[in-house]
Every structure is written in structure tokens, then in C-alpha cells.
Amino acid sequence: MNIIPGGAVAKPFITYSNELNMRISPELYHKMLVIAGIDQHGEELEEVLGVKLQETNLFKTQKETRKILHDICVAKVVESLPLRDTDSLLDKLIGEFLEVTYFNPTFTCNHSQIMSPLAKWHLSKVGLSELLELFVMKKEIYNANTELNHPIWQWRLFKEQAKVKATGDDGTMFIDENFCTALEYGMLPTAGWDTDNEQVTMFLTDSKNIQEVLLFPAIKLEDIKENIATADALESTTAGTSV
């Protein structure tokens, strides 16, 4: 449990006692330990979406890009999103038209920076980040990226994420000042990847619920009480009808 939810860009779980956050990933703490010791594929997108895109200006301005992506969502009758920001629209379109085609093992590489703001930027391709994802049978198995180790840029990105969070996006991250301070001491070139045994097991067994693959799944107290009451009632009935 942490005061600041860390790691993944996802909505954190929140407790009702002392208002602590259940961490989704201890990623920033892992990085602290390390410290202590697109080329725009316009033709492919046009072919899949069936929409003519502007040539090199697609990702130059947020306002213009958001308008283009919004029009594509409307034209393709894609389910509306509560947030019409650029990265949400782009992520929705990729999920609707590209990820559904990844049957064979497929790596998607060099994601747009607006979709992975906390990953390290691509060293030779402006606007992209050094991030990849593996898909098999239309399911994401893991994602990996080169970690950003520049303290000033990390601080700026945290502030940008805070602005986005203020608009109502619960999936963005909080500002972690301790991590930024740790980065000032220097972090070696680091890469990380995100997956877990349960996720892989669910894929291999074609399970729909994670509780199907957990060896010791959590059980709510209400369920335990209900099971005990059922057992007691059954025992009483059996005792009353015995000869």
C-alpha cells in the first residue's frame, strides 16, 4: 500500500481506511533501486481505416490530431469515449482496427509518445518512444520499454500527467517528487517489462477470470459467513432427520 499509486498508467485501487492506494506496479521503486546501485505509418493506417490522412502533419498539433481522430471514430461508428483527448482516441482506434488482427505473435514497436508519455523517447525518430508490446491471439501478453532516466524531463511529464488528471482521466499518474529527486542522483540505462504469471496462465488456459488461475484466490468475508451458515443449516437438517 502506498500514498502515491505508482507504476502503470492505470486507475489505482483506493482503500477506505487511511486513504492508501493499492499499487498496480512498484515500477518507480524498482527504478529507485537501480539508481542506488513513429515513423508515421500513414499508408498502413489509411488502408486499415479506409480514411485519407494528412501526410506529415498528423501528429504535429494536438488540436488538429484530435479533430482527425475524432472524425475517424465518428465515420467508423467507434464507441464514444468519456475523454476525447488525442491518446485516448488513438488508443481506441488501434484497439478497434489493429489489435483485433494480431492472431500470430506480433510485436508492436515504437509507439507514439502521446500514448506512452512516461517511456523514454526514441533516440532517432522524433515523436516516438522506445516501447513495444507483444500480442498473441488478439491478447496483449506483455509490454516493455526503455526507462526514462532524465530527471528534468520526468518532472515535466509528471506535471503534464497531473494536468490531464485534472480533466478527469483517472488513468494518469500522480507527481512523485521522491522519484524525481532520486533520478537526480543518476540512473543507469534501464529497461523494464510488465507481465505476470497469472496473466500468462490465463492466456494459456483460455481462462476468463483471474480467480480461475490463482492458487489462493481472495474470498470476501461475506462469502465465508454464508458458506458457514449453509454448512450449519445442512448439519442441523442432517441431525434432525437421522434415525
Automatic annotation (TrEMBL):
<dbReference type="GO" id="GO:0015966">
    <property type="term" value="P:diadenosine tetraphosphate biosynthetic process"/>
</dbReference>
<dbReference type="InterPro" id="IPR004364">
    <property type="entry name" value="Aa-tRNA-synt_II"/>
</dbReference>
<dbReference type="GO" id="GO:0002276">
    <property type="term" value="P:basophil activation involved in immune response"/>
</dbReference>
<dbReference type="GO" id="GO:0005829">
    <property type="term" value="C:cytosol"/>
</dbReference>
<dbReference type="GO" id="GO:0017101">
    <property type="term" value="C:aminoacyl-tRNA synthetase multienzyme complex"/>
</dbReference>
<keyword id="KW-0547">Nucleotide-binding</keyword>
<protein>
    <recommendedName>
        <fullName>Aminoacyl-tRNA synthetase class II (D/K/N) domain-containing protein</fullName>
    </recommendedName>
</protein>
<dbReference type="GO" id="GO:0043032">
    <property type="term" value="P:positive regulation of macrophage activation"/>
</dbReference>
<dbReference type="GO" id="GO:0004824">
    <property type="term" value="F:lysine-tRNA ligase activity"/>
</dbReference>
<keyword id="KW-0067">ATP-binding</keyword>
<dbReference type="GO" id="GO:0005634">
    <property type="term" value="C:nucleus"/>
</dbReference>
<dbReference type="GO" id="GO:0005524">
    <property type="term" value="F:ATP binding"/>
</dbReference>
<dbReference type="GO" id="GO:0005739">
    <property type="term" value="C:mitochondrion"/>
</dbReference>
<dbReference type="GO" id="GO:0000049">
    <property type="term" value="F:tRNA binding"/>
</dbReference>
<dbReference type="GO" id="GO:0006430">
    <property type="term" value="P:lysyl-tRNA aminoacylation"/>
</dbReference>
<dbReference type="Pfam" id="PF00152">
    <property type="entry name" value="tRNA-synt_2"/>
</dbReference>
<dbReference type="GO" id="GO:0005615">
    <property type="term" value="C:extracellular space"/>
</dbReference>
<dbReference type="GO" id="GO:0003877">
    <property type="term" value="F:ATP:ADP adenylyltransferase activity"/>
</dbReference>
<feature type="domain" description="Aminoacyl-tRNA synthetase class II (D/K/N)">
    <location>
        <begin position="85"/>
        <end position="218"/>
    </location>
</feature>
<keyword id="KW-0436">Ligase</keyword>
<dbReference type="InterPro" id="IPR045864">
    <property type="entry name" value="aa-tRNA-synth_II/BPL/LPL"/>
</dbReference>
